[in-house]
């Protein structure tokens, strides 16, 4: 976050797009390598496991090359997004990352309560009463709909065990 | 005649009280999904798919397809009232719907939109009723080469008909195929592309990809735009509805044309979004008062809505009869069939008559129920939109996480979902289409199997795909679709008309 919320700066679209195209090409290379490992020629039972993905990988690399060329040729001086906008995006991605990372340890319910509460309190600046009502209400409703009515078990952690759910 | 009897049996199935209840629940959930940003038809259905695990397949598909109809209806509400398309296919509805709302004619616009949606869907369902059994019985004769040719046609249509650059479409599609290939190879039983990571043994589940790419990705895009809802209130009363209904038949030509465009674009997997744009564009060019389009012309609402709904419905035709879904949502429904233990494709019409015809009958009823629900409940749905995004966003994120987890009861999938979400955000920003990626994940294994089996029969010679009239005509259609934009460009240049 070099420039903070100043409105007109951010990464150039061209640059980001070129980066993403290269990443896609890299993915293609990984697919090709993996296919070669699995064998791309004919075996006793016909084409081997890597035969089809090998050509897919080649297609990915080839089309990325064309996309890279087209992207760089294009007259586009626009921004990918402003830093302020990207910060908004990251303010969702990072907490969500922590949230999904915490689910295996805390269970889904506790993590959801904290996540919704955090989101509403810090990004929405709601009074605590609203925050608590929504963040507690949603997991409770979820519990009844999923676990009780439709019999779909959701991940639970120590708190649910302690409550005996 | 046999079809008619089957259809009546279908109605008997669909009219069971439980199924009617499921239908209404589905429609209401669907409209909600269509109204809320970040929850679209495809990922909405994907998230709710686990809820149907304990139902009978027929009730389950009725519920899920009704969610789909509801989402199609719901997209129009936000477009007209708030100038925010709830779904990509309702972007074209904003062009004239929102100006109408600003002029105080929101009721008329909504009535026109809902009624046109209904007409479009009805047209497509009638077509499905008549055509699907024929296509299915025809497809029963398909060998592996013909099967692959159908997949080839489906994917080529994406490249030729989508508005994104063709090579980006190809790249996105191939990423999907590569993801589908990860894990156990179904023919040789060998592991591939797993690089020793145990989580990848079973490959990538496309439901996770759908929830991530469409759900999380959409939320991130919305966050970036810093969305705020501002818009008129909706009042629909019987007088407005009846008045609009009196006016609508004058646009029957537009309606019919939009139905045809929609059906065509729905069967070829171009989908509802291009159908709505194309229909709007043609209506604008052809209509008497075409120059008024964009300023609040009711015909400008009729055209895209009819086409979008016809396309959305017609997308189920290839899904049911060939096992090739025409849209991401149809792909999710197809995934549902597999989970409930049904094999999509032509055999469905032979082995699962009750299921197929129950579904088709429910399409008639579901759309009727949908029309009634949206006409009567618009103010409620509009009120939901006024709930600020900072409350809705975390709730949707949690719902996505629940949906992703419950597919395989795996917390790894939830992490994967977030990764797909970030990828979806980046790809969308760089103008890569996501629909072909998802469809390739769904169909990748089947397409590969058909391809390898055909090659096996021909000892590796590609000529097998041109070995008889049937397979070669499908392949040639595919090639035409692949180069469609080039052909079109050449044609307009020849005529000297502006593109």
Automatic annotation (TrEMBL), chain A:
Keywords: Membrane, Transmembrane, Transmembrane helix. The keyword Transmembrane applies. The keyword Transmembrane helix applies. InterPro entries: DUF1468. Pfam families: TctB. Residues 22-155 form the DUF1468 domain. This is Tricarboxylate transporter. The chain crosses the membrane at residues 20-40, 52-72, 92-119, 126-146. It comes from the Bacteria.
UniProtKB/TrEMBL annotation, chain B:
The chain crosses the membrane at residues 20-49, 61-82, 109-136, 148-163, 169-188, 200-221, 326-343, 355-381, 387-407, 414-444, 464-487. Keywords: Membrane, Transmembrane, Transmembrane helix. Residues 20-439 form the DUF112 domain. This is Tricarboxylate transporter.
């Amino acid at each position: 976050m070099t420039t903070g919320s100043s409105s007109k700066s951010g990464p150039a679209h061209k640059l980001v797009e070129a980066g993403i195209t290269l990443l896609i090409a890299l993915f293609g290379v990984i697919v090709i390598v993996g296919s070669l490992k699995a064998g791309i020629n004919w075996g006793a039972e016909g084409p081997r496991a890597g035969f089809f993905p090998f050509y897919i990988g080649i297609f990915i690399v080839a089309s990325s090359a064309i996309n890279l060329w087209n992207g760089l040729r294009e007259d586009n001086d626009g921004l990918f997004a402003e830093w302020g906008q990207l910060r908004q995006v990251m303010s969702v991605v990072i907490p969500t990352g922590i949230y999904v990372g915490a689910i295996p340890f805390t269970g889904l319910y506790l993590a959801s309560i904290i996540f919704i509460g955090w989101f509403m309190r810090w990004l929405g600046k709601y009074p605590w009463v609203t925050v608590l009502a929504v963040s507690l209400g949603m997991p409770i409703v979820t519990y009844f709909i999923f676990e009780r009515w439709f019999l779909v078990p959701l991940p639970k952690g120590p708190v649910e065990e302690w409550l005996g759910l | 005649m046999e079809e008619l009897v089957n259809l009546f049996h279908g109605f008997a199935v669909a009219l069971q009280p439980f199924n009617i209840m499921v239908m209404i629940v589905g429609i209401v959930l669907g409209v909600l999904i269509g109204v809320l940003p970040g929850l679209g038809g495809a990922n909405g259905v994907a998230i709710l798919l686990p809820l149907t695990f304990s139902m009978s397949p027929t009730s389950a598909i009725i519920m899920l397809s009704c969610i789909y109809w509801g989402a199609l209806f719901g997209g129009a509400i936000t477009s007209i009232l708030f100038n925010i398309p709830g779904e990509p296919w309702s972007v074209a509805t904003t062009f004239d719907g929102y100006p109408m709302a600003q002029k105080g004619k929101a009721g008329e616009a909504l009535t026109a939109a809902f009624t046109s949606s209904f007409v479009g869907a009805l047209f497509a369902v009638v077509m499905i009723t008549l055509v699907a059994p024929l296509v299915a019985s025809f497809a029963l004769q398909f060998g592996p080469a013909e099967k692959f040719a159908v997949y080839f046609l489906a994917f080529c249509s994406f490249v030729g008909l989508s508005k994104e650059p063709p090579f980006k479409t190809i790249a996105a599609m191939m990423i999907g195929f590569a993801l589908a290939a990860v894990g156990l190879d179904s023919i040789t039983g060998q592991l591939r592309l797993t690089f020793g990571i145990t989580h990848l043994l079973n490959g990538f589940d496309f439901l996770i990809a759908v929830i991530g790419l469409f759900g999380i990705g959409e939320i991130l895009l919305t966050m970036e735009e810093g969305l705020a809802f501002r818009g008129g209130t909706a009042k629909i009363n019987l007088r407005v509805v009846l008045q609009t209904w009196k006016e609508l038949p004058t646009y029957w030509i537009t309606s019919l044309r939009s139905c045809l465009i929609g059906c065509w674009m729905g069967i070829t997997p171009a989908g509802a979004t291009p159908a709505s744009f194309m229909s709007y564009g043609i209506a604008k060019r052809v209509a008497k008062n075409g120059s008024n389009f964009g300023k609040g012309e009711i015909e400008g609402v009729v055209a895209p809505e009819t086409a979008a709904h016809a396309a959305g419905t017609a997308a189920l035709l290839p899904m049911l009869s060939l096992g090739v879904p025409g849209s991401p949502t149809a792909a999710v429904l197809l995934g549902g069939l597999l989970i409930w233990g049904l094999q999509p494709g032509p055999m469905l019409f032979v082995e699962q008559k009750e299921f197929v015809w129950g579904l088709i009958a429910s399409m008639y009823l579901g759309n009727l129920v949908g029309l009634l629900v949206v006409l009567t409940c618009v103010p409620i749905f509009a009120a939901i939109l006024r709930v600020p995004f900072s409350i809705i966003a975390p709730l949707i994120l949690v719902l996505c996480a629940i949906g992703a987890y419950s597919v395989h009861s795996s917390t790894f999938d939830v992490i994967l979902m977030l990764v797909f979400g970030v990828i979806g955000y980046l790809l969308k920003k760089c103008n890569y289409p996501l629909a072909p990626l998802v469809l390739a994940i769904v169909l990748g294994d089947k397409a590969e199997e058909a391809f390898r089996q055909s090659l096996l029969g021909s000892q590796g010679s590609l000529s097998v795909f041109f070995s008889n009239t049937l397979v070669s005509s499908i392949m040639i259609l595919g090639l035409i679709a692949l180069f469609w934009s080039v052909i079109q460009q050449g044609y307009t240049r020849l005529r000297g008309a502006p593109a």
